[in-house]
Amino acid sequence: MPDRLDELLAVMPADPCPEDLTVRIQARLTYMRWRSRRIRRVLHFMLVGVSVVGMWLILPRVETFLTALPDLSLAAVEEWLNALARSPGEALLNLSGVIITWISELASALEIEIVLALGILTASALYGIITLLSNGASRKEAMA
Question: Where are the domains of the chain?
């Protein structure tokens, strides 16, 4: 019965490794890291530009958002916190009702620019969160 190691040794090249192989590998790794950083910087720069466009589209319409907000007072917050302490499910159900009412009032006043701006800002925020989380994980992996 042939051994797996014998099979691997049979297909292994007999030629010695080139002398500059390690230098070429290190140069390639350096280039790939540089390219990755450059792509990341370009993406971040584009993200900032897109976020600025989103803010530019939404700033004139901020009044629409603020007028659609329900009245918020300290007494209302205290009442909601008390309801949350008594019955968390019911308090969250009431809060979701308030949010749905706010969204429906806001949806009637939405224009395509606001929807586009909200989409842009949401995508930018999610990309930023993903970048922050993935950078933290990769640094931990690099330390291990």
Answer: 19-143
pLDDT in tens, the chain (144 residues): 568 888 888 888 778 878 888 899 999 999 999 999 999 899 889 988 888 888 888 888 777 767 766 677 788 778 878 888 888 888 888 878 877 877 777 777 667 777 778 788 888 888 888 877 886 555 555 444
Q: CA–CA separation, 4 vs 10, rounded Å?
A: 10
pTM: 0.51
Spatial separation of the C-alpha atoms in residues 13 and 130, rounded to whole Å: 43
Q: How far apart are CA 31 and CA 27, in angstroms?
A: 6
